[in-house]
Amino acid sequence: MKLRNMIYASLFAAIVGALGILPPFTLPISPVPITAQTLGVMLAGAILGARRGGLSLGIFVALVAVGIPLLAGGRGGFGVLLGPSGGYILSWPIAAFVIGYLVEKYWHKMNVARFILFNFLGGILLVYACGISYLSFVTGIPWTTAAFQALIYVPGDVTKAVIAGITAMQIKKAYPLIKKPTELQKTA
Description:
The protein is mainly alpha-helical. It contains nine helices and no strands. Belongs to the BioY family.
């Protein structure tokens, strides 16, 4: 792996960690707090692409697992991954990979609407599917109850998908980090 790829992956792991400085907002209806860190997940996938985006969140989750308090509220440690929020957090590398894969696949057709759509698919639907299922399993509540509780997160996450989409489009125009498919073939 090139040094540049390692730096980008590390940078976005740090960005997700920095978004954890914003305090979590906990609601009485759900044990999972509202945080800004899913914005970083969407940005990593949309800006870095599949491999680097997934790697950056893989690094982040590994750092959290060994106890570094990078999650909102200063949380960290393997116990957090086994708790109610674990499914959401563990899905982040997969979400960044999926977002990045879709962006790479449609690179030549990318616009703000597609960035937002891909952020919604990977950063919301996929994360919710994993997080709700894990929450239901860990807490023993019915899946439908966990899904109903998660509806409170939708407005904020849709806002994050829009912010990430607009930001990714601006970066694509100014300094694209993902190579176009034709550029990949020339360098291979």
